[in-house]
Amino acid sequence: MKTQVAIIGGGPSGLLLSQLLHTKGIESIVLERKTKNYVLGRIRAGVLERGFVELMREASASERMDAESYVHDGTQVSFGETMFRIDFDKHAGHPVIVYGQTEVTRDLYEAREKANGKIEFNVEDVVINDAKSDAPYLTYTVDGEDRRLDCDFVAGCDGFHGVSRQTIPTEVRREYEKVYPFGWLGILSETPPVNHELIYSGSERGFALCSMRNENLSRYYIQCSLDDNPEDWSDDAFWDELKRRIPKEAADKLVTGPSIEKSIAPLRSFVTEPMRWGNLFLCGDAAHIVPPTGAKGLNTAASDIHYLYNGLREFYESGSREGINAYSEKALARVWKAERFSWWFSSLMHRFPDQSEFDLKMQIAEIEFLRTNEAAQRAMAENYVGLPY
Ligand code: FAS
Ligand code: PHB
Q1: How far apart are CA 156 and CA 220, in angstroms?
Q2: 75-78 long-range contacts, Cβ below 8 Å, gap at least 24?
Q3: Which domains does the chain have, with CATH numbers?
Q4: Which residues line ligand 1 (CB under 6 A)?
């Protein structure tokens, strides 16, 4: 088989790129390791930046998102019994929207299917060949049958555990990593959200986050030990611990119920450089990971896709390689700013097993500065709603 752009990974990065390319008549084929239902079964991000929303509209895949998402003009930050609001509208001039990654992915699958987009599922043993040449090709198997896909370019949208990043020789790659000594235990429950906006809560017992998907579907997280397993936590134990970590005014009105999903996500900051090697381009989690505290994971994948899509579009429309040659540098410039914000907010809001009394005093002073200083609140708001592409 032959196509113009071979995309490895049928998560949000790969699907969004494929759909955007389609709007400009550029052919692509998506190779996904799992089944569609497996991909849709992952519960992940919940907050979308304006840039992501605009890309979904550009991809003609935003109709349901525009109808069903929630506009959030701010978020609550609490530390102990102190709770204050970061006003996105006042400090950054626009909101974020709340719409689950699962729904984004579902909408993108529907858009690809409607356009007869080519997606192969249950793909195994993907190998990227001749990435440095002008005629790269993928080899892979489906149901034991060997296949080959010739292409002009390869987009590695296959996440942190994919094959793309590993294809770049170790002597070329530079990797930067910080692993946090805790995880997030998340649950989904068919209960009304405790608050109309998110609550990021730091407490002496650890971090908690109150989020939502709609008026009767809530998403909650608590910082947990890396030794924990979801089955170690009964629903009652989770609710009791969450109530201990959020302000009393919220805990008193929390509506609890059975969890319909329960999982633990490890937290890490990770970047690989460069994000391009020959005609292989890394996008999204294949190239970088952030702790989810700042809601930057999915949103930073979006800016990668924006840069790569426009570079490929420029190549096919004019033959210019300027955009694709600038991809890695341009994407990394924004990636590192997202890494910084996610690291800062994670360091501020979590309790670290080995932190000293002085470290705690620094967290308290930083929170007090954020609560009382307009410039600090503006900096947080601008990063949270998304820095410009
Ligand atoms: P993804 O990992 O979503 O998709 C990659 C796809 O490639 C997968 O479908 C995989 O099956 C496929 N694949 C992998 N290897 C392959 C191969 N060799 N061949 C073919 N296909 C292959 N972000 C937030 O903003 N907020 C959150 O709360 C949040 N929670 C998260 C929880 C977890 C457990 C994880 C892992 C991530 C979380 N993230 C969160 C980040 C997440 O939303 C990612 O940023 C987002 O999924 C990135 O999308 P992709 O780059 O498409 O990668
Ligand atoms: C979520 O709703 O899943 C969510 C929201 C904000 C975050 C992380 C996760 O920072």
Answers
A1: 31
A2: 75/197, 75/198, 75/199, 75/200, 75/384, 76/195, 76/197, 76/198, 76/199, 76/200, 77/199, 77/200, 77/201, 77/367, 77/370, 77/371, 78/199, 78/200, 78/201, 78/202, 78/246, 78/247, 78/250
A3: 5-71+97-177+268-345 (3.50.50.60), 180-266+350-385 (3.30.9.10)
A4: 8-14, 31-34, 39, 44-45, 101, 123, 126, 157-159, 161-163, 265, 284-285, 292, 295-298, 301
Mean pLDDT (the chain) is 97
Q: Tell me if 30 sits within 8 A of 10, measured CB to CB.
A: yes
CB 7 within 8 A of CB 21: no
CA dist., res. 164 & res. 160, Å (int) = 9
Note the pLDDT tens digit of each residue in 318-354.
999 999 999 999 999 999 999 999 999 999 999 999 9
Angle formed by the axes of helices 12-23 and 101-114, to 10°? Answer: 40
HSE toward the beta carbon, residue 348, CA cutoff 13 A: 22
Task: List pLDDT tens digits, range 188-239.
Answer: 999 999 999 999 999 999 999 999 999 999 999 999 999 999 999 999 999 9
291 lines ligand 2 (CB under 6 A): no
pTM > 0.90: yes
R_g (Cα) of the chain, nearest Å: 21
Tell me how far apart the alpha carbons of residues 372 and 74 are, in angstroms, rounded to a whole number: 16
The question of whether 384 is a catalytic residue gets the answer yes
pLDDT 10s digits, 98-114: 999 999 999 999 999 99
Q: Which ligand is nearest to the CA of 221?
A: 2
C-alpha 389/C-alpha 122 separation (Å) is 34
Instruction: In whole angstroms, give the CA distance from residue 80 to residue 245.
Output: 8
